[in-house]
Amino acid sequence: MIEALGLTKIYGRKKAVDDLTFTVQPGVVTGFLGPNGAGKSTTMRMILGLDAPTAGTVRVNGKLYREHSAPLHEVGALLEARSIHTGRSAFNHLLALAQTGGISRARVEEVIDLVGLREVARKRAGGFSLGMGQRLGIASALLGDPHTLILDEPVNGLDPDGIRWIRNLLKSLAAEGRTVFVSSHMMSEMAQTAQHLIVIGRGRLIADTSMEEFIASSSHNLVRVRTTDPDNLAAVLRGPDVSVVTAAGDALEVSGLSTDQIGIAAGRAGITLLELSAQKTSLEEAFMELTKDDVEFHGATMTNEGVSPLETAGADR
Amino acid sequence: MSTVTATSTRPSAAAPKKVTQARVLLSEWTKIRSLRSTVFSLLAAVVFIVGLSILVPSVTVSHWPPRDLREAAGFDPTTRTLSGIFLAQLAIGVLGVLLITGEYATGMIRATFAAVPSRLPVLWAKAAVFATVTLVLMVPTVLGAFLIGQSILKSKHLQANLSDPGVLRAVIGAALFLTVVGLLGIGLGALLRNTAAGISTLFGLLFVLPIIVRFLPSSWSDPINKYLPSNAGEAITRVHTDPAALAPWTGFGLFCAYALVVLVAAAISLRRRDA
Fold it and tell me: Which of A24, A37, A142, B21 could form a disulfide with A2 if both were Cys (CB 3.0 to 4.6 A apart)?
């Protein structure tokens, strides 16, 4: 369990994290979402006591991180930038970390096998690919068999095989009753892994909700309808909370009604339907919509007038 | 790479064990012995000391007696055979800085401090392990270098004996001096967190400061000179105490105090600053 209370971090004049309050529950994978620069990594460093909060507190399993006498057994962490000395072998890296908490060599060997680094365990970590480095980071997070796992962008640099492996690992760890807190800026990945979401933008909390609610609340689920008689159908369907828009290819886009309701209404009016399909908003779109005002860096987009200037959202740097 | 599907992470480590200073010492020992830079730097230090203990006495013997008789009068056979320590201090000082800044440069420091959140045990363990390794290696090295050098000087009957007054102290003192240079490096590395800054500050203190002081009027430089870190530290390596220098153990004590001040400053900074 991770409990952040009014967590704030100010670097110079920039508020990297702004009054974050949230709780990460055990037993489910909690996704920590936000655009780049939103403050995810800073928050994670504060959870681990690496950066001191300017204000507020964050507790892990009931205590401040530095109050734990056996921290590796409480929290396992994979930090975004590789936290591995490039000159040391994977085995010795893990052994040195293990020894601080009296963790056995057998456990070191075990986590090496668990992440599939057996063949390269005695090689210098400096020669590792990004994916191997991530696996080594995950191995060090698992060393102490911790109750809580904090992983910053764990799928970065992994191949599809590795991504599937992480996804299953995280789910199985959560199923064992552990707290699993995973940051990502890739929404599609989160959609398949996380059951709960904490979304931040420019350091502020935007949403703390279940994955389903997140998608439902931030989307206007559309139903796409094609019919032989679009004008009549639109007239039949329109109501106080219903909007009907004509889309490309003679289709109508209806919001505010389910596919069932539309089908029944069309049947009563004797209108022939050619297509009736729900257009689920993807997590990616829901996220984009929710954070569009909180993205720090916008790319220039092509418009009819040419290239628009950078939006002012991030211009305060 | 094979993909392992983890269904569970069975703990083979039984009950959680606390982080203790002894465990952190063991961890730092693993770290220091598993880096090639440690091995190379220490090997370089040994080669410098032993190499110059052959080279310098050989040249001395072949040019003896010197044309300038004052040189013969001030001849110190012990110092002559241990000139390699001035090169070795580069290797050991740089290694001391790198032991800390290498962790900052690679990001390892975050893993280290996540494992040891109180942080200070890491600094003390690094200092203790490095000091022990350096001392254990340097004592036999300087003793060997002394004996090799004296056997060469023997051909002109210039040799000193370990039983001569002050000689054993000067020889062992050379190893002590190098050890404290290493500790100064660790302290500066932890304080500055950057390899280039750490190394240049260390060399600035040891080598550049004496040069700057030399440019001051002698009424200023004379009283300051003996308190400079390098001059204070080297006092213990000289058999015959220069009247302008501090007494051997006084000088060494001051040198240790400088290193301690830097280490304490580093400790305060480690506790206060973000990793």
Answer: A24
CA distance A272 to A227: 6
pTM of the complete model: 0.84
Which among B24, B27, B108 has CB closest to A84?
B108
Alpha carbons A129 and A291: distance in angstroms, whole number: 32
pLDDT digits (tens, 9 = 90+) for B99-157: 999 999 999 999 999 999 999 999 999 999 999 999 999 999 999 999 999 999 999 88
Give me the pLDDT at residue B227, please: 95
pLDDT value, residue B110: 94
Ranges under pLDDT 70 in chain B = 1-14
- The alpha carbons of chain B give a radius of gyration, in whole angstroms, of 22
**Is residue B176 in a domain?**
yes
Q: How many domains, chain B?
A: 1
CB contact under 8 A, A116 and B108: no
Q: Select the residue of B11, B26, B275 nearest A50 (Cβ to Cβ).
A: B275
Mutate to test the interface with A, among B26, B106, B112, B126 (most CBs of A within 10 A): B106
pLDDT of residue A316: 38
The span from the CA of B80 to the CA of B151, in Å, is 12
Interatomic CA distance for residues B102 and B200, integer angstroms: 15
Nearest to B2 among A75, A97, A116 (CB): A116
Residue of chain A minimizing CA distance to B6 = A169
In this structure, is residue B148 part of a structural domain? Answer: yes
A88/B16 CB distance under 8 A = no
Q: Is residue B3 part of a domain?
A: no
Chain A residues whose CB is inside 8 A of the B114 CB are 48-50, 71-72, 75, 77, 79, 83
Burial class (CB in 10 A: 0-12, 13-18, 19+), B14: exposed
> In chain A, which residues have pLDDT < 50?
301-317
Which domains, ranges and CATH numbers included, belong to chain A?
A: 2-216 (3.40.50.300), 220-279 (3.30.70)
pLDDT at B187: 98
Distance CA A157, CA A160 (A): 10
Q: What is the pLDDT of residue A300?
A: 53
- Interface contact B19-A96, CB threshold 8 A: no
Q: Looking at chain A, which residue has its C-alpha nearest residue B31?
A: A96
Give the mutation candidate from A60, A83, A111 for the B interface (greatest B CB count, under 10 A): A83
Q: What was the pLDDT predicted at A308?
A: 37
Backbone φ/ψ region at A285: left (φ over 0), alpha (ψ -120 to 50), beta = alpha
Can you give the pLDDT at residue A217?
Answer: 67
Report yes or no: A92 at the B interface, CB cutoff 8 Å. Answer: yes
Does A224 contact B at CB distance below 8 Å? no
For residue B195, give its domain range. Answer: 21-272
Q: Which pLDDT value is given to residue A280?
A: 67
Per the CB < 8 A criterion, the answer to whether A272 and A229 are in contact is yes
Closest of A72, A231, A70, A68 to residue A143, by C-alpha:
A72
Q: How many CB pairs under 8 A join A and B?
A: 162
Residue B5, domain member (yes or no): no
For residue A208, give how far its alpha carbon lies from the nearest alpha carbon of chain B (Å).
27
